[in-house]
Amino acid sequence: MATLSVPHDIVSEILHRLGVNDLLRFKCVSKAWCSLIDDPDFAKLHLSHSLKAGTNLSLVPRGLDGGLLSVELHSLKRVRRLKHPLESYHDKFADLLGSCNGLLALMSRRDEISLWNPSTRKSRMFPAAAVEISRGRLRRGFVVYGFGYDRISDDYKLLQMAQYYFSNDDSIKSEVKVYSSSSNCWRRIQDFNFYIKYKLVHGVLANNALHFVVSRMRRSEPLVAAFDLGTEEFRLLELPDCLGTGFSLNVRALGGYLSLTVSYYLGVHVWDVHDTEIWVMKEYGVRESWTKLISIKQSEFILGFNYVLPLAFSNNADKVLLYVDRNKFMWYDLRSRRVENERDLGGVPRFQGVEMLVVSLVAL
């Protein structure tokens, strides 16, 4: 029987619609298939299809013990523990610095950083940049990170921002460095002279920029700062013009949009949440494009929540998956304005922080 020859572009069109596990097995079919699947351009095509179709998505929560889990997004089932490259016999801790194109940026207690693809199990290891701030009488401080891909330079970048301050006034010293995967080195860039509000929250990637909640003074109203991965410059984004007073902010990426969670408080404590609004910026950088997507009153929906963060849209975009406090997920129906299917991850210990991950073939 004569061998049937299928054109290369047809083979590529078929294969890029498959899952990563299948593709890794199919590398054994022939040298041509192996070469195709290992091609960086094929990895980009496969990633683009997954992102457009909303497939191959999972959640990666970090447990309070520092271990990482993987949870299928739409079913919230198939929970499994991830064995990451920073894990040792004595210590499985990994801080989640960010997620982008199927890669996770992780950090160990020993300041080792790994850019890791859990699907292909390939990683790159390097040390965090040394902080060179002359502290003097500056006793308090912290370091936050942000991870993303710059489409213009075709480069993955990791942002490191160190900030130290006095405990009794508004004086600060900051230091900003950027790691480039293409050059495999750190370099110092301009300083950042706004106060970073949350020392345990890393940058949120949306629209080719990393976003942080900041303020002009430590106790002033919160703002949103964006670090452009292309120009490597900071800018402030304008907030919706109809916000009230006495609120806190959180930023997330939601369906390709920058998302803003506004939590209003009745009292001075974080557990006195009264109302939560979730906004999306439909046209990036345009203040008038902020659109209120969800408004939740604690008395009507969720008893005793401290915070709510949006994670993803459903397949037909009529629901939003919400992450509530430290161990609960729920779907919010945008049509009925009701919460559905509140659930925690049965048998899974409490966790702190969660990232979205798309399964991909991307390599550094």
CATH topology of the largest domain: Neuraminidase
Q: Uncertain regions: pLDDT < 50 for 5+ in a row?
A: none
- Round the Cα radius of gyration to an integer and report it: 22 Å
What is the second-level CATH architecture of the largest domain? 6 Propeller
Strand content: 35-45%
Pfam family, one: FBA_1
Protein name: F-box domain-containing protein
Organism: Hibiscus sabdariffa (roselle)
Could you explain how this protein is built, in words?
The protein is mainly beta and 364 residues long. The protein has two domains: 8-50, no CATH class; 51-358, Neuraminidase. 10% of the residues lie in helices and 45% in strands. The protein has helices at 8-15, 20-26, 31-38, 40-53; strands at residues 57-63, 68-72, 80-82, 95-100, 103-107, 112-117, 122-127, 140-150, 155-165, 172-180, 185-189, 195-196, 204-206, 209-215, 223-228, 234-237, 247-254, 257-265, 273-281, 290-297, 308-313, 319-324, 328-333, 338-344, 351-358. Strands 12, 13, 14, 15 and 16 form a five-stranded antiparallel β-sheet that branches. A four-stranded antiparallel β-sheet has the order 3-2-1-25. Strands 4-5-6-7 form a four-stranded antiparallel β-sheet, with no helix packed on it. A hairpin with a 7-residue loop joins strand 14 (209-215) and strand 15 (223-228).
